[in-house]
Every structure is written in C-alpha cells, then in structure tokens.
Amino acid sequence: MRLPKLKRIITDPDEFLSDSQLKSLSMELLELIPMDGIEGSPLDSEQIMEVVLRAAVDTTSVNAVTENTEDTPDRKAVMDWLHTLEKESMLDTVNDVLALLAMTILDRERSRTICLDFMDNPFHGYPDDEDEIRRMKARDGTTKCHRYCTAFVLAQGKPLTLAIEPVDGDDSKADAVERVLARVEQYPFETEKILMDRAAYAGELIGVLRETAPPVFPVKTGKDSLREKLSAAASHMTEETICEGKEHEQTYPLAVNVTYHNGDRGKSGLKQIGYAAYGLEDRTPQQVAAIYNHRSWIEKSYEKFREARALTTTPSTTIRLFYVGVGFLLEQLWVVLEWAVLARPRRGGRALPVEFAFSAVFLHGIERVLDEELGWKKKHRTNGEGLPSGYDHGLG
C-alpha cells in the first residue's frame, strides 16, 4: 500500500498547506478502502467517498449531504454503493492505513506503552440482528450501542490510534482485546506495558493482556479482602487474587494509592484507589498512579473522533464500522500533518501549532472545498406565498 502524495507533502512540504490539499489527502486515504460498487453504475467510488467525507467533516448524515448539494448522487445510490463494502477487507485496510500514518512519526526502536479501551457508539434505529447490539448507560437518548475495542499509543504530544476492532454480539471482551493486540503486535516496536480501565479486571482478560505485556489497570472493589486493603490510611504495595480457585485465577501486585479529595467534586477526606500493577512491583503506588494517569489522554482522541463521525441510523454494522474508521483516519491524518508538516522545529522537540485546530481548521477547511466541488446549495426555493391569510397578525 503506497501513499505517494501524502509522502511528498510530509517529506518535502510546500511553504503553505492549503484546504484543497487537506481534502485531497483525505480522499487519498479513503480511496484505499476497497468497495465493489454497483456493476454498470455510472458512478465511481470517488463520488461516493466525497459524500461520506462531507458527512464526516460536518458530523451529519449522507442524506443531509445529498439533499443539500446539486452535484452528488441521491441518497439511495450512495447507500447502495456503501452496502457493497466487505467488512473484513474494509477493516483490514482501515487498520493498515492507521498503521502507515502512525509509523510516519513513531520511532521504531523505542518500546511503547499501549492504551486499550472499549468505545460505545450510540445506536438509534432497528438493527438487522438484535444480537449485534450492546447495552450501555443512557446516552444521546438511547441505551443501545455498537461497541469497538481500540488501541492507542501516546507520542509527539498526541494519542495515535493503532488499531480498532468491532465487538460483535457473541464476542467476549477477551476475544476483542486479543484481536486488537494481534494487530498491535504487527508494529515494529516492542510493547512495554498496557494501560486499560476497570474493564480489564477479569481473570480471562488479564491472562490475554499478560501474553503481550504487563498490564496496569484500576481494580474493582467488590471483594471483602480487597476492600479491606483499600481502606488503609497510607499508600502501600501488596498482592490480591482474582477468580480464586477458578479456571482464570490470577494473583496480581496491588498498588494502593492514598491521596486526599481536597474538595474535588464536593468530597473530602482520604481517596484510595487500587491498581493492578504488573511489571511495576518496584515502583511506589504514587508512581504507578502517575503512569496510569497518562491513559486519560485517549479521551482527547475520542473528543476529536466524535467531531468527524458521520451520523446514521442504518442497521448495517459494516457501514457503521466504516464511518468509525473514517473518523479515526481523519483524526490520525490531522495529528501527522500537525506534527510532521506544521510544527516548528526547536531545541527539545517541535512546537505544535495551536492554530491548526481539528474541527475549526482541518475539518472546516475540507468542508469548504467540498462545498464548492459538490455544489452546496446557496439558495433554497420558497413557496412564493408566505404566511396564509389571517396568520400575519404577529407582524403588527
């Protein structure tokens, strides 16, 4: 897989990076995704991808784009093409392009800390198969969602997306994490440790994580012996066992970090958090907590991704996964361009440009170009009559 235009801009950039180039580079990535299309159709994949890109950069739907433009196919034609996407090949390509982008700015020789997470994408509508739907806390007016497992690495002051995998209806968390880590293991660098949230606190999943690298994650406090250890008034290192006497029994090093609430969220007194700290047995609980807190950076990535996710109510899990992939690809492209092309070299590292904001500059720049190319409607036909007789009394 080759990205000749992208490579030229990264290695030998012009004095300025234009909105037109941002759009072209984005399209170059999207056109790598295989789509069979409709045999005999006068359309081509570029026309379809432009509609999807316009929907993504404005966080809107394909229908909204086709209704408000003059030079695009209608919604049905676009969706017919999108329904020819093949899930596995599309997902493989999205992950391959994420890897290509990430490795343009990652040092191959350094070991890395990997952050894993489960991301819920709210679902509105009626799925083809109820088994594909997961349940979440109510958000955006629904408790239904599609779930994805993601892997990130922190580099150049930003989180880079390494891999994404859908969590299908029959998947366990361990299954999804195993697939994501299999993709991460294809990268040329060593994984030093893995940071994950409390979802990791399950014996089977801990076993999967440990096969790749030592995991670090906060523990759940349901067990009496664990609650007793977490009630301590001073930070300390100890051990705890999960799934005791069962198939997936795990004994892990437990770091109990004790701090003060200091009025945070209206709370006061001691604050005790326990971490499973594999590979960090020689560290203090404060050091373990500081290492884990780096994981909070991935929330910034999610914030950006949601600004570039096309909206849909389609029951197709493949199209939904495709939209998720487009969002992460756009964010990754932004991170790479920001650091490689726009950041100013200086002693001690490059200075990232604060003016190259993801939504207001990068996405909006692409939107402006597409509006011109797709014939965004500047005026709208009226009914020629206005208010019916008798309804104009509020005008004085």
Q: How would you characterize this protein structure?
A:
By secondary structure, this protein is α+β, with helices and mostly antiparallel strands. It has one domain. It contains 13 helices and 9 strands. It has helices at 4-11, 19-30, 45-57, 62-67, 75-82, 87-103, 173-184, 203-210, 224-230, 285-293, 298-306, 317-342, 358-374; strands at residues 112-122, 134-139, 142-155, 158-167, 191-195, 215-218, 236-242, 250-260, 270-277. Strands 1, 2, 3, 4, 5, 6, 7, 8 and 9 form a 9-stranded mixed sheet that branches. Strand 2 and strand 3 form a beta hairpin. The longest helix is centred in the C-terminal third of the chain and has 26 residues, at 317-342.
Q: What does the main sheet amount to?
A: 9 strands, mixed
Q: Which value, in Å, is the CA radius of gyration? A: 24 Å
Q: State the order of secondary-structure elements, H for helix, E for strand.
A: HHHHHHEEEEHEHEHEEEHHHH
**Overall body shape:** globular
Q: Give the terminus-to-terminus CA distance.
A: 67 Å
Give the structural class: alpha+beta
Would you identify the regions where 5 or more consecutive residues have pLDDT less than 50? none
Beta-strand portion reads 15-25%
Summed over residues and divided by their number, the pLDDT gives a mean of 91
Q: How many domains would you count in the coordinates?
A: 1
Number of strands: 9
Name the helicity range: 25-40%
**What is the count of DSSP helices, taking H or I runs of 4+ residues?**
13
